[in-house]
Amino acid sequence: MRRNMSLEKNKMPSQEPEVRKKNFLEVATGYTEEQAVDEAKRCLDCKHKPCIAGCPVRIEIPEFIQKVIDRDFEEAYQIITRSSSLPAVCGRVCPQETQCEEKCVRGIKGEPVGIGRLERFVADWHFKHSDTKVEKPKSNGHKVAVIGAGPAGLTCAGDLAKKGYDVTVFEALHEAGGVLVYGIPEFRLPISVVQKEIDTLKALGVKIETNMVIGRVLSIDELLEERGFEAVFIGTGAGLPRFMNIPGENLKGVYSANEFLTRVNLMKAYKKDASTPIQRAKKVAVVGGGNVAMDAARSALRLGAEKVYIVYRRSEAELPARLEEVEHAKEEGIIFKLLTNPVEILPDENKFVKGIKCVEMELGEPDSSGRRRPIEKENSEFVIDVDSVIMAIGTSPNPLIKATTKGLETENWGGIIVEEKTGKTSKDSVYAGGDAVTGAATVILAMGAGKEAAAAIDEEIQKRVKSKE
Ligand SMILES: Cc1cc2nc3c(=O)[nH]c(=O)nc-3n(C[C@H](O)[C@H](O)[C@H](O)COP(=O)(O)OP(=O)(O)OC[C@H]3O[C@@H](n4cnc5c(N)ncnc54)[C@H](O)[C@@H]3O)c2cc1C
Ligand 1 pocket, 288 CB below 6 A? Predict the structure, then answer.
């Protein structure tokens, strides 16, 4: 076989910016078979396989890429799913540039192999062509409850179901998927893709009960003591939005990014017949510089805004969003107001937003996060004329679970305290992982935590069984 020694990745086919900024369809449309095989041939199949170490769930990357070269796409999918339960999702949203692809030897001189693009191709190929039926494993007679149907909870549930556990996932919202369905917009991750992954879990026997807010409808103690569950995994995420505590945050037209994105993505507020209202603002300021801010800005644009600003207090180099998201946002015409910090949201006579007062910033010495601290410039106030403001400056875990569970220890900021590698909490038979433990992080880290906890739960229950024999 001849390797492809091109220094560049095969380009991802995508909708043109002028077209895509007016619709909610997926921006990137995915490799063809020919492009995937050509890209796979860029892999050098190195002896030390550094890419695997860069993947939080340790996918056997060179092995699946070899199967792509062989055009055995189904086998490539089977190799990925040995380690990852959500490949179509991870292929789309994982920050590969700081994980597997960062370690790729081809990245030393040129671009790394497009591992994420290949993972996405393989998962999409499987869902389109394969008729391999998922077999429900034989029951082992043990019951486990999972709270929260985001990537952490779904991964934990899937891994336990594969071992024969009777798993019930309790989800507060009316749909499973967590941030994958209520946060990340359809133009990056179509809900149908997430649904296919959830259907696979259901075929494994995982039961999902929606509209079940644990801590309100049932408590964790009730699940363990009255409902026959032998262990509980908490994967409730970090959905509580933060605000800046500046004047004007309670005006009409100010949203948290979570509320805005939930209305748009989950409740489909962009459709004419949607039952959920949303303000279709003409000029929007999104405060923040992460993926959430980019998603909110690009969604506001698609809702019809003429001008959308990203207001971020550091410089471009510190933007925490994925590079690809920043590039896509720029191509679509989002205006970046960098080194800019809001100090007040201004009202009109009806208490609607009419502008956002900001100050200019400059960067000082690095702070505890290692990033240079933004410092306000004197006499630098100015106003951006907007009629809506979306706050995307971070989230924390919701305090409900802590408040309703005896003996569950958390950090001051709300993160559940767990033992490393197992996710075991301070409460017997209760495990936790994902954003509920780490604060807002990434899909793959949440999945990794769900996997580790599933292994630890299995070990604990099997130990109990053996001690009774
Ligand atoms: C807009 C946005 C864009 C993002 N983009 C990316 C990206 O591009 N790449 C990436 O890797 N990461 C991204 N992230 C981060 C990533 O989505 C999260 O790190 C990940 O979803 C965390 O998974 P989780 O399972 O811990 O929590 P979540 O996905 O938040 O799921 C938690 C679930 O628990 C449910 N729940 C909460 N409380 C209860 C309760 N009391 N009872 C029952 N259910 C409950 C919630 O409704 C939710 O469904 C993004 C996040 C956001 C918000």
Answer: no
